[in-house]
Amino acid sequence: MLFLIGGFLVLIVLGFPIVFSLALISFSYLLIYDIPAITIAQKMISGIDTFALLAVPFFILAGNLMNIGGVTRRLFRFASAIVGFIPGGLGHANVLASMIFAGMSGAAIADAGGLGTIEIKAMQDEGFDTEFSAAVTAASSTIGPIIPPSIPMVIYASIANVSVGKLFLAGAVPGIAMGIALMIMVYFIAKRRNYPVHSTFDLREIYNSFIDGLLPLLTPVIILGGILGGIFSPTEAAIIASAYALFLGMVVYKEINPKELFQVILDTVKTTSMVIFIISAAAIYGFLLGREQVPQGLAKLLFDISKNPHVIMLIIIIFLLIIGCFMETTAALVLLTPILVPPVSQLGIDPVHFCLVMVLTLMIGLITPPVGVVLYITSNIAKISFESCTKATAPFLIPLILVLLLMAFVPDLVMFLPNYLIK
């Protein structure tokens, strides 16, 4: 056990990528303990031999298509029309647009990289500080994997063997709560700094922007309606979302040409390959951790500390917040899910509820240094330093952590919809 965990940490400190750290330490373990090398191939393949994982490339593709197909621009216009009249107008539009886009792509990076380009420029032109514009964009992008659909939840479901449909529904209330909490923070900062109001409340503009963005706005309705109506599975919903995004971009709006489509497909293949490779490497590492009875050891350690589910949940949240500062979300999710789910299940914590807490905690890691992938993306778009973006984003950690704690310790807020709609 010490070799697996210690060796992995040493490789990370030395600067090895997560995926190579997992693979190298696993292969070394097999050599030392004379385990047949074919075990690597078997476990890596079995780790990705899950139907639910087919949703990952298609949700990535859908997000990429929407970002270049004119969808994100229309969504931001509609969001601006609805909340632009509130103090800090475009800041609120930024958050609302992320909430809407979250119902289409399920990825924080797609939100930050696609919507972020439009949002930051619009806020700069309106007179907002560049740092504040980048901070709101970074913070709001964490909503992407919480409001359904969600790529991290698909990955969790494939590992923990739980219903993807239930996980998607579990994210609805927390995602909305995150959006409201961020808007409250935007309001107070905007009032204190005297940021501009984007526009007056104009029903005509709301109507026009709604009509212009109606077809993209139907995407979440199609995805969730189809899943709940039993028309297609969550995995098939990803294919529907991609096909619909392609239809909008090439046929309706005509903003995607064949050359751009080829580049989008290439980018999707690259991203998917990285995600699947991480899952494969983590599968063999997880198998070896199980062989060393690490989950059982962790369960005993936690139970020695306390048998109160709330205390254990708080300990795990603190642990995940620290992990999120140093480890990429997918890798952390794949690595820690098989370790953490068994002990929390023994405490009576629903795996669906725990998934939401785990994903939300790791999403906060996307806007915390030193890894903070979303911080790098938004600082690059805004052309400011990573340090400036980190400092500006820090206040938004407060509402996100408050929502996290609320969802962790009031499970009914998370479980109401999945328990009510899926028996």
Question: What is the compact description of this entry?
Answer:
With about 425 residues, the chain is an all-alpha fold. About 80% of the residues lie in helices and about 0% in strands.
Overview of this structure, please?
With 423 residues, this protein is mainly α. The protein has 2 domains: 35 residues, no CATH class; 371 residues, no CATH class. Helix 8 packs antiparallel against helix 20, helix 16 crosses helix 18 and helix 18 packs antiparallel against helix 19. The protein is globular. The model has no long low-confidence stretch (mean pLDDT 85).
Element layout with pairings:
Layout: H1 2-13, H2 18-32, H3 38-48, H4 55-68, H5 71-83, H6 89-102, H7 108-126, H8 130-141, H9 151-160, H10 164-170, H11 172-193, H12 203-212, H13 214-228, H14 234-252, H15 258-291, H16 294-305, H17 309-326, H18 329-346, H19 351-365, H20 373-382, H21 386-393, H22 397-409, H23 412-421
Class from helix and strand fractions: mainly alpha
> Which percent range fits the helix content?
over 70%
- As a whole number of angstroms, the C-alpha radius of gyration is 21 Å
Number of strands: 0
For the record, the count of structural domains works out to: 2
Spell out the helices and strands N to C.
HHHHHHHHHHHHHHHHHHHHHHH
The geometry reads as: globular
What is the tally of helical segments?
23
Arithmetic mean pLDDT: 85
Oligomer: single chain
Distance between the termini: 40 Å
The residue ranges in which pLDDT falls below 50 over 5 or more consecutive positions are: none
Largest sheet: none
